[in-house]
Amino acid sequence: MIWNFILNPLAGGGKALKFWQQVEPLLVKHKIAYRFHLTEYQGHARALSFELAQQGERAFVAIGGDGSVNELLQGLYESQLPLSEFVLTVAPQGTGNDWARYHKIPQQPQAWIDFLLRRTVVAHDLGLVSFGEGYTQRHVFINMAGCGLDCHILQKMGCAGGKSLRYYSTLLSSLYAYQGEWLSIRTQQKHEETQAQSYLLAMYCIGRYGGAGMDFSPDAFHQSGHIHQVAIHNMPFVHRLLSLPYLLNGKIDTHPKVSVEKNTAFYIDSERNGQFQCDGELVGNLPAKVELVPKAIHVLSMS
Prior knowledge:
303 residues, alpha+beta, 15-stranded mixed beta sheet, two-stranded antiparallel ribbon, 8 helices, 34% strand, globular
């Protein structure tokens, strides 16, 4: 097996490039077959993984964060080859590293090499977001998609430069300024009567963690066969602040303003055509359909 390493040199504020300089000699030492690909522009990882998949490559490592993983994954999806043929993992050198956190993937070079050598390969569910006119545009995610406050934060923050503190400072300012999103959420394709409600955010989870370590979906499992919807209803600023511990203590589903539902598909609409994100990257605008693709791809995991 030849591992294709795709590196975003800007990921983690330069941490990713430094990691590669340390890990490459270890790959040689352990006689691990590899090829190295350096991205040169936004969207290049997507183009590279698409091209490499068409050429017959099947094992991929994203060196970066959740966004780097998503970009690489989207290229594989767009290749129109069976995703089950691919093995995907990450060398977590980004800002949040939330998908890596769930799979207990280490950040240090030697520990990461040890993780790679064990090669615990597991099937992994994916989420698929369909959007645009007639739901004809599609984007996959491996950890979380969402709309509301998370998209507001991404708009305000821009590139985090590998600084999770920047994310949390933007979160605190956004908790005060954000007005909420009027969303209509349903689980059936037919247009049933669903009254729009004001939400702080709605997350659609395959994995457990998001937002640089927040525990959005404590019961998430990568082979659960369901999308975990975590919807947080709007609330005053003071209540938002007092509720922050619920995002960290694994008890978010006990909060009176939080509703949790498991299903294989959700339809989300917004009164303002609000944005949605996949794995921490702004992708498009609502309305959208979020659905499960069970055991779609193979990944490396320690969880």
